Each structure stands twice: as structure tokens, then as C-alpha cells.
Amino acid sequence: MHSTYKEKETAVLVAVQTQKQNAAQTKEYLDELAFLADTSGIETLYTFTQKLERPDNRTYVGKGRMQDILMYVIDNDVDMIIFDDELSPIQIRNIEAEFAHFQKEVKVLDRSLLILNIFAMRAQTVQARTQVELAQQQYILPRLTRMWTHLSKQRGGVGMRGPGEKELETDRRTANDRISFLKEKLRQIDKQALTQRKNRDRMVRVSLVGYTNVGKSTLMRRLAKADVFAENKLFATVDSTVRKVTIDSIPFLLSDTVGFIRKLPTMLIESFKSTLDEVREADILLHVVDISHPNYEEQIGIVNDTLTEIGAADKPTILVFNKIDKFEVEPETTEKEQDDWEVVHGENPWEEEPKDQASRIQKVTEFLKKSYLHTPQPMAVFISAEQKENLDELRDTVLNLVKNKHIQIFPNWLTTDESYTENSESWAE
Ligand SMILES: Nc1nc2c(ncn2[C@@H]2O[C@H](COP(=O)(O)OP(=O)(O)OP(=O)(O)O)[C@@H](O)[C@H]2O)c(=O)[nH]1
Ligand SMILES: [Mg+2]
């Protein structure tokens, strides 16, 4: 029997492969888009790509590809199309018009809107909620056309048929008023937060930064015994958490905050400025990387670019390569590369499978250290936050940097350290 009840909304994904990217990268980007969709509770049925110099101004992909998408969406009664780049209001209108010929209502979303929706789902504090709503309103305002009604009216659904011209005018005015109101509210929250930060003892401030889902919150739990939320979804964290940590009687503040992603909407970065203050004002950064991710090098670049954008680059940084328990030495390396490695280093780490987890971790760590010694890198540590591997080494590296900074702030510290040991949490096992 045919049932019209659908558990999940369904989507097709669409990306353009420009000359700057190869097929493997495009696939990675689409996998990430599918992960974003999945995090929003949307099931991806199919993906479409097209090689183009740049996305088409009118309909993002060309006419022929659009026809393929149209047929698939109609035949399979798909609920929405999600594009990997931010669409202009005109592109949205044209794409929706294609479907209107077939009396098919389909939601047209893009990567930015998907990210905004996830942030809205996750925001816990008043500050984060206000910041997300501001970004949403700013995204929607130029797109308030007949096809659109704004998000705040209908939680969960976007891209429905909109109101008439007159209501649209009212909607635009309401959106503008709301934007002013939210900005003012954020100014007040910022003022309070600033006072709070000023009243805190001056302590060395360390911030966890990194791409989304790399394990920042998991590491925060290990380092500060903090009960922060971690899960295998994108943007599990969109607020920031600060905890006092003490190692060898040196106290410092550790903060965990929102992760970064490729093509993070600009309005989101802007409205999250105050959440990102923790990062901007930090003395030291722990840049966490998921070394088991096929695109981890590109992710490092994206994080560095975002840090530059928010004015937080050029701080003493430790690259924390996480998830070494999931890192596979073998499949990534050809036999020729293995032979070359053996010639240079006099051993072949691929020769035999280590028997237990401990020796496997040791082997992987040695392998990674050797690979990274060739390239100029900031300090690098290889850990597994989940499996608690090599955390002592990370602790020592952090301690060294913290100590240097601590001595700068408190030149007389060596004689007065007693007072800092009270009431502080110690490094978790
Ligand atoms: N295998 C493995 N998984 C890990 C490790 N560290 C974290 N994870 C998993 O990775 C997923 C993401 O971890 P989180 O700590 O939420 O990552 P995050 O960087 O805080 O992510 P966002 O807050 O979404 O930006 C979770 O499912 C963790 O259990 C690790 O060392 N090894
Ligand atoms: Mg997190």
C-alpha cells in the first residue's frame, strides 16, 4: 500500500565543480553538505554536479542540468533542493519559477540557510539565540519576495509560498525593526559580558578553535572536566563555555566555542562577533584538527582564514591533531611512497599490523611526528581525546606556553604561586 506519510523531509543536493576544484573535492563538499542536511533531519536522495567556470547567474546550473534536476524532483516527489553555494534572490526566484510550471512546490535552500537553521536549533544562551536570529533576519531580508516568508513566523520550515505585495511591505518593515531591536539587545549583552570579563582575575586565556566536529568539546571535557555537549553532528556547540583549569599550580581559563566550516555565512560571523571574543582575546590557541578526515589539510586552511577574518591570527598556537585512533596509515600511502619512506628512515611502519591498541597508537604517533617534522609547522601534538591518548604530552606543551604567558602577566609569580591552587579544577585523567 502506498503511504504518503514521510518521516523525514527529502532533498537533492546540487554543486558546481569549478576549475579550482577536482572531482574528489567536489565529492567531499557534497558529503559535507549531506552531513549538514542530516544534522537538520533531512534525508539526501541524490546529488547533482556540473562542471562550470562559475555558477550560472540565472539558475546556478545550466539549462540542461536544471531539466535533469526537475525531472528527478518531480518523479520522486522530493521536498527540497539544497545548493552548495549561497544563492542570490534572483537565482532562488528563477529556480522556483521552473517548478511552478509543473505545479510543484519545492523548497529552495542553500548552504548558508542550512547552517543558519542548525545554529538556530543549537543555540542555548540568550546571546547565541539573539545572534542567530539577527543573522537569519539579515539573510532573509533581501530575499523577502513573494516566494518567501520569514523564518521567525514558522519554526522549522523555510521557503514556503509567501504573502502578497502589501504584506511583504509590512514584513520587510517588521524585519528591519526586528534587526534594529536585536542589534540593540546584543549591544546590551556585550556591555554586561565586557564588565564580567573585566572583573575576572587576569588569567592566561586559552581557546579551543577548529573546524566543526573535530573534537573540541570532547577535549574540553578531558581538560577541564567540563560537562559540555559533544556529538557526531555538525555544530554541536554554538555558544562558548569557559572553565578554569590548573596544571602544576598554574591556573588558566580554557574556552570551547563554535566550530568553523567552509563558506560560513558572513552575516553569521559578523553577528557572532561577541561569542568569538573569547577567541579574539585569547593569549593562546589550541587549533584542533581531525586528522582522520580526508580533507583535514583544507580544513586547517579554512580555520586559519576565519581566524584572520575575526582578527585572531598570529597568536601562539598549538596544532592539536586529534582522532589518531581513527587515523589509517595504510590506504593513503602507495607502495612506492612506502619504499621511499623506508629508504629515508630505515624502517617500514606498514610492514606488520601492531597487535594491540597501545602499540598501534605508538606507531601512528611516531609516523605522524616524522611526517610533520619535514614541514615548517607550529607546535604539533598528536592525540586522541576520546581514547585519552597522548594527553600528557599535550598537557606539557600547553603548560610551557601558559607558563611563559603567566610569567609575563605576573612577574613575581614564582614567589606567590600558593594563592592560585585553591578552588580550581585540576587536569582530568
Ligand atoms: N574516534 C574519535 N572520535 C572522536 C575523538 N574526539 C572526538 N571524537 C568524536 O567526534 C565527534 C565530534 O566531537 P565534538 O567534541 O562534539 O566536536 P566539536 O569540535 O566540539 O564539534 P562542534 O561543536 O560541532 O564544532 C563526536 O562524535 C566525538 O565522540 C577522538 O579522539 N577519536
Ligand atoms: Mg563542540
UniProtKB/TrEMBL annotation:
Where does this one sit in the cell?
Answer: Cytoplasm
Q: What is this protein called?
A: GTPase HflX
Report keywords, A-Z.
Answer: Coiled coil, Cytoplasm, GTP-binding, Magnesium, Metal-binding, Nucleotide-binding
Keyword match Coiled coil: yes
- For this UniProt entry, what is the primary localization, expressed as one broad class? cytoplasm
Subunit notes for this chain? Monomer. Associates with the 50S ribosomal subunit.
Which superkingdom?
Bacteria
Pfam families reported for this sequence: GTP-bdg_M, GTP-bdg_N, MMR_HSR1
Q: Which residues form the Hflx-type G domain?
A: 204-406
Question: Which positions are tagged coiled coil?
Answer: 165-192
- Give the species this sequence originates from: Flectobacillus rivi
The similarity annotation says: Belongs to the TRAFAC class OBG-HflX-like GTPase superfamily. HflX GTPase family.
Coiled coil found in the keyword field: yes
**Which CDD domains has this protein been placed in?**
HflX (cd01878)
Protein role? GTPase that associates with the 50S ribosomal subunit and may have a role during protein synthesis or ribosome biogenesis.
